[in-house]
Amino acid sequence: MKKFLFLIFIVFISNLLVSAQSAKDLEGTWMGYYDCGQGRTGVRLIINEVSNNKFSGYFQFFPHYSNYSKNVGIGVTKISGEFYSSDNVKIDLTEWIYNPYNYMLVNIQASMDGTSSINGTMLHSSCGDFEVKKQ
């Protein structure tokens, strides 16, 4: 029984260490795109603070090179998020720094592919894919 409890303890501690290490891997600058009603939009995600499994930073968006013909705005928001596991990363756009006309804050549900990309979905009915790669 003692060996079994010790094994459970080791597995529990290992999971905590892996989660904390993976959450720390979010820190940095990520570049990519998201799809919404205005079409494909470029994005720069800057995660500059990670504490345990929570993080914060900035979400900047701008016209994507494939979508210059549409009227895509330029904007900046603050973000906060939580890392539950590599398959469950929640990013909340929390406060406008610069809000172009008729844009709204839309949260993101994503997963990490190793330490080099984050892929997910913008959580609004007019939106779709979100993908960024670490710079």
Describe this entry's structure for a reader.
The protein has one domain (2-134): Lipocalin (Beta Barrel). 17% of the residues lie in helices and 53% in strands. The chain is built from 1 helix and 8 strands. The radius of gyration is 17 Å and the shape is elongated. The relative contact order is 0.19. Residues 9-21 have low confidence and may be disordered.
Structural class designation:
alpha+beta
Poorly predicted spans: 9-21
- What kind of sheet is the major sheet? 8 strands, antiparallel, barrel
CATH level 4 superfamily? Quinohemoprotein amine dehydrogenase alpha subunit, domain 2
Secondary-structure element series? HEEEEEEEE
Rg over alpha carbons: 17 Å
The count of helical stretches stands at 1
CATH level 1 name: Mainly Beta
What level of helicity do the residues show? 10-25%
The number of domains = 1
CATH architecture: Beta Barrel
The tally of beta strands, per DSSP, is 8
Order of strands in the sheet with most strands: 1-2-3-4-5-6-7-8
Please outline the helices and strands.
Layout: H1 2-24, E1 28-36, E2 39-51, E3 54-63, E4 75-85, E5 88-98, E6 108-113, E7 117-122, E8 129-134
Antiparallel strand pairs: 1-2, 1-8, 2-3, 3-4, 4-5, 5-6, 6-7, 7-8
Short structural description:
This protein has 135 residues and is of the alpha+beta class. Helix content is 17%, strand content 53%.
